[in-house]
Design a protein that fits this description.
Layout (H helix, E strand, L loop, with lengths): L18 H9 L18 H33 L7 E4 L5 E3 L2 E3 L20 H10 L6 E2 L17 H18 L14 H16 L12 H8 L12 H18 L6 E5 L4 E3 H8 L21 E9 L10 H7 L5 E8 L2 E9 L2 E5 L5 E2 L19 E4 L6 E8 L2 H15 L11 E3 L36 E4 L1
Parallel strand pairs: 1-15, 4-11, 5-7, 6-14
Antiparallel strand pairs: 2-3, 2-9, 7-13, 8-9, 8-13, 9-10, 10-12
Helix pairs in contact: 4-5, 4-7, 6-7
Main location: cytoplasm
Keywords: Autophagy, Cytoplasm, Hydrolase, Protease, Protein transport, Thiol protease, Transport
Protein name: Cysteine protease
Length: about 475
């Protein structure tokens, strides 16, 4: 039985085109908005010379925009965004989404005081929950990235976008709560208006511009990446992105009080050092208690986003860890997993049976000016869940968790233990909690957390079997 859901609005959606357009794209001289250097000509007429230069610049700018649009169209076709496809959901199995369980056979009568939308714990609840996750994708025609001529991240920024979505989910939990839902309607009361303001504020923090008012923009992440030798156009792994997110939050804390009760910790070599967490989050000894800004966490304890980069195999993921990954997605504290297939980054938010449910950043959209009043929100929310077989997951990934209070963190340590060790006793846990501080532990090589294998694909076209999307349908 099919559950009807409006298709993802693809405004100005490019129509499928054949490979001749790809050849045209490859033949254009300037890539991703790159413009040719101006050449000086000998001329006695300065005004004529100026007009010639203006005409050359306009022509080069036009070529750059055309190249960007063709790249966008090719990417959208390549990853299946130009055709309607279906994701099949079994009516006999539960669907898990970031700690929430939904089942077709579970139907809850909506309460009379529900002011917007009707949501039960059945499949309608899953749809509302999935659509409410913040979706950050490739964008085109944004301001030039620092130190480059790139005006799009199409073709190389998928892991950065996946990391942005992971952080965005942590911020949604921090500010709006895990139970928050987005409905594409105007707010009708004070509570909904407040939620709309907070929702837009979170999206503004990820706006595609080099402003300090967007501390988690791709411009900021690329700038931070230069310290490690990365530049615009380079590919990133999940471990690298987790450290960029930590640095971005640390910098944002210095300029915006919104973040002073939030911190990010990145596990080292699959080990979470408890005293490091306490030193980072416990502010009762280092600072006087300030109860005026304690809306989102305890005044003496910072809320924690915990990022754990792991590598679950050599070339392929060790299958014994599959059940561990899905178990982690059933925890209320989990904010998702970034990883994907080899050369193809995705943001995983749930699963059904042996299929992972994810948000795909490989849809190239026009940039949105998030500083305009009431800017459109539809392009930041996806109506098209996609699924991928768990066995195809790349072994390199990063798992995210959110703990609001001290009690939440210690309860999380207890509850997560049963998810970390595979059923095969001889296998190692996915990650461990260690007493003490990392700096007090003698350094030694456990195993490498190399993350270079998860990258955006450049030329290989995915088969139709890899792409499941667009409509909700029950078998």
């Amino acid at each position: 039985m099919a559950l009807n859901l409006p298709a993802q609005p693809l405004h100005n959606q490019p129509q499928p085109f054949h490979c001749g357009l790809r050849k045209l794209f490859l033949d254009l001289p300037y890539r991703n908005g790159n413009q040719p250097a101006q050449t000086k000509r000998e001329t006695g007429d300065s005004s004529a010379h100026s007009r010639e230069l203006d005409e050359e610049n306009e022509s080069a700018e036009g070529d750059g925009k055309m190249k960007t649009k063709l790249l966008s169209m090719w990417t959208n076709m390549k990853y299946g965004w130009t055709v309607k496809m279906k994701t099949n959901f079994s009516k006999d199995s539960p669907v898990w989404l970031l700690g929430r369980c939904y089942h077709r056979k579970m139907i809850v009568e909506p309460s009379s005081d529900t002011s917007v939308g009707l949501e039960g714990e059945g499949f309608e609840g899953f749809k509302a929950d999935f659509i409410s996750r913040v979706w950050l994708t490739y964008r085109r025609e944004f301001p030039i990235l620092n130190g480059s001529n790139f005006t799009t991240d199409c073709g190389w920024g998928c892991m950065l976008r996946s990391g942005q979505m992971l952080l965005a989910q942590g911020l949604v939990c921090h500010i709006l709560g895990r139970g928050w839902r987005w409905y594409d309607q105007k707010p009708t009361n004070a509570r909904l208006y407040h939620e709309d303001v907070c929702h837009r504020k979170i999206i503004k923090w990820f706006g595609d511009n080099p402003s300090w008012n967007s501390p988690f923009s791709i411009h900021m992440l690329v700038t931070l990446g230069t310290a490690t030798g990365k530049k615009a156009g380079d590919w990133y792994g999940p471990g690298s992105v987790s450290h960029l997110l930590r640095q971005a939050v640390e910098l944002a804390t210095k300029d915006d009080k919104e973040f002073e009760h939030l911190c990010v910790y990145v596990a080292q070599d699959c080990a979470v050092y408890i005293q490091d967490i306490v030193d980072l989050c416990d502010i009762s000894q280092s600072q006087p208690q300030d109860t005026t800004n304690s809306l989102y966490s305890s005044p003496s304890w910072k809320a924690l986003i915990l990022l754990v980069p792991v590598r679950l195999g050599a070339e392929k993921m060790n299958s014994v860890y599959g059940s561990c990954l899905t178990a982690l997605l059933t925890l209320e504290n989990c904010i998702g997993i970034i990883g994907g297939r080899p050369k193809h980054s995705l943001y995983f938010v749930g699963f059904q049976d042996d299929k992972l449910i994810h948000l795909d950043p490989h849809y190239c959209q026009e940039v949105v000016n998030v500083w305009e009043p009431n800017f459109p929100l539809w392009s930041f929310h996806c109506r098209s869940p996609r699924k991928m077989n768990l066995s195809r997951l790349d072994p390199s990934c990063c798992i995210g968790f959110y703990c609001r209070t001290r009690d939440d963190f210690y309860k999380f340590m207890q509850s997560v233990q049963q998810c970390l060790v595979p059923s095969h006793e001889a296998e190692y846990p996915m990650f461990v909690f260690c007493e003490g501080r990392s700096r007090d532990v003698m350094t030694f090589n456990r195993f490498s957390i190399s993350d270079d294998s998860v990258r955006c694909s450049d030329m290989k076209v995915e088969s139709d079997d890899d792409l499941e999307c667009e409509e909700f349908e029950l078998l």
